[in-house]
Amino acid sequence: MEKSINTMRFLGLDMINKANSGHPGIVLGAAGTVYELFTKHLNANPVQPNWFNRDRFFLAAGHGSALLYATLHLAGYDITIDDLKDFRQLNSKTPGHPEFEHTPGVDSTTGPLGQGMAMAIGNALAESYLAGNFNKDNLKVVDHYTYALCGDGDLQEGITMEAMAIAGRYRLNKLIVLFDSNDIQLDGPTKLATNENIKMKVESMNWDYQLISEPNDFNSLNKAIETAKKSDKPSFIEVKSIIGFGSKNAGTAKTHGAPIGKEETTEMRKSFGYDFSEFEIAKDVYDDFKKTFASRGTSLYQEWLGSLSIYKKLYPEDYLELTNIINNEIKIDFDKLIPQEASANEATRVTIGKLINTLSPYSKALIGGSADLTSSTKVKGINGDFDIANRTGRNINFGVREHAMAGIINGMVLHHLKAFSGGFFIFSDYMKPAIRIASLMNIPALYIFTHDSVAVGEDGPTHEPIEQLTMFRAMPNINVFRPANANEVKHAFRYALLAKHTPNVIVLTRQNISINYQVDYQEFIKGAYDVYGDKESESILLATGSEVELAVEAAKILKDKHNISVKVVSMPSRELFLKQPGEYQNKILPKNKHIIAVEMGSTMGWYQFANVVYGIDDFGRSGKGEEVQEYFGFSKEKLVEFYLRQK
């Protein structure tokens, strides 16, 4: 055991020294904790790293990546010595912080502190929900633990406290957090920034708490994890450790984020009695991990396949649904369930609520909720509230915790659910860091926002989004939809549910929209298309959301009163439009046409498509929605006046 732990430590140091970059403190201080977890508790299979029923491990303290990569290599995952030597190098398999689907065995992208904790909690919630839906009395096909390793920094982030409160409320008892508690952070001792009683704080949120007071007391740690597995609450194990254990600056911030260097590492090898050179690994260390980790995982994987085979025979319908979830498949006849129809005079937020209720019965993958706003957003899961006594409920009451909601949604999507969240668009500011992580991980999380513009009205500028559309449109690997009517909402929701590698943001109105036009799904997913007018029009009004209706009304006035032919284009998704061939893009937005973009938000970004932008580069106002829109010039009369001034 000691040789294996020291191998983990020195592999990590060798990686950091070679890269001349990294965080040796956690490698030296937490190696024993990670060893104990992997070799005695964590059930996973390095040959089948994506096994659905494996235990998950979230390295919330993502700066400890060198420790994770060293462990995964020793445990038999497809990470070679050369990969370890390429630590933090361009395009290597071992980047500076763990990246999901980039490195085998990494269960989530982590680095921004707190995100890993929220995703672990979402993963544990997903396990509980899936177990409630699919397990039978004597046949458990979803039955695993979620582990997380966090540090002081994670616990200082607001998202962690938000998410932990949710985990305690719902008694996610198969969640076990190991707190690498060394009382040090980058700027010095943690007492410079905090003096809280973590035991009281954790217990007040309905978590079990245990303390391992002596560094490297692995027997006590092992017993604590076993005790945690028997709890009816989520478990928090504080493991006192020494940052930079064994180095000359052990116990200080100097070891947090700077290489120790080869010279000191050589001296440490001697003091540890570790008689192996750089990147050299003894065969019995590999054998240790194979015997204690890989063999167990292989055996449990085979047992699970056997259980799944029996399950298929006894419960064929449940088996089919479960395998769809495992394969990230949604089997819904969208054309039958949401046929094209005349657009109702309703807010697009109302449409999404109807769609969730209509489609959810056809796939148990659909689960979600809003941040204390379901009556306003209409974003609410079916089958009642998910709760201690109702693990099959599909509505999650996140409370006023937008940031944690987004992170938890990500964790659920990592467990192959089609999880969705709901909130006012202005509060996407609180969610943006987690949404960025989803984009980086290539996972199809769905974030639904309502109250999308200054038309919010009386709540005023604090609740009226201006720059948020631009913010998300600037983010790589995400689709942003702003539907113009009920039919566009249907198509956007369909696209988001079918997505496999890209998160989706759907932005909806508070106010009613009455424009009645239809477009089929294949045309919609081109991102932009003609709504009114013809190709001979002298210019184009390019709009999104409720402004499409406004643009059509203005175009009709221009035609009837001024004999001016103007084409109107709806662009529900810039991202999808930009993926189309140049020929199609030029057909919809000819380069020789005068194009005016119309949107109640920031003008930034629209000049990619338009000569002129009719938008809002100011904060909103408080007043009746119609009056605020009029104030900013978003009426058909004022848009006509603006158009005529452009001529």
List keywords for this structure.
647 residues; 19 strands; elongated; Rossmann fold; 5-stranded parallel β-sheet; 25 helices; alpha/beta; 3 domains
How would you explain this protein's 3D organization?
- The mean pLDDT is 97.
- The chain has a five-stranded parallel beta sheet, sandwiched between helices. A five-stranded parallel beta sheet has the order 9-10-11-13-12, with helices on both faces.
- By secondary structure, the protein is an alpha/beta fold.
- It has 25 helices and 19 strands.
Task: Please provide a brief summary of the model.
The protein is α/β, with parallel strands linked by helices and 647 residues long.
Under CATH at level 1, the class of the largest domain stands as Alpha Beta
* Fraction of residues in helix: 40-55%
**What summary fits the major beta sheet?**
5 strands, parallel
CATH fold-level topology of the largest domain: Rossmann fold
Main β-sheet, spatial strand arrangement: 1-2-3-7-6
What percent of residues are in strands?
5-15%
Which secondary-structure class do the elements indicate?
Answer: alpha/beta
Would you report the number of β strands? Answer: 19
What would the average pLDDT be, to the nearest integer? 97
Under CATH, the homologous superfamily of the largest domain reads Thiamin diphosphate (ThDP)-binding fold, Pyr/PP domains
Q: Choose one word for the global shape.
A: elongated
Provide the gyration radius in Å.
27 Å
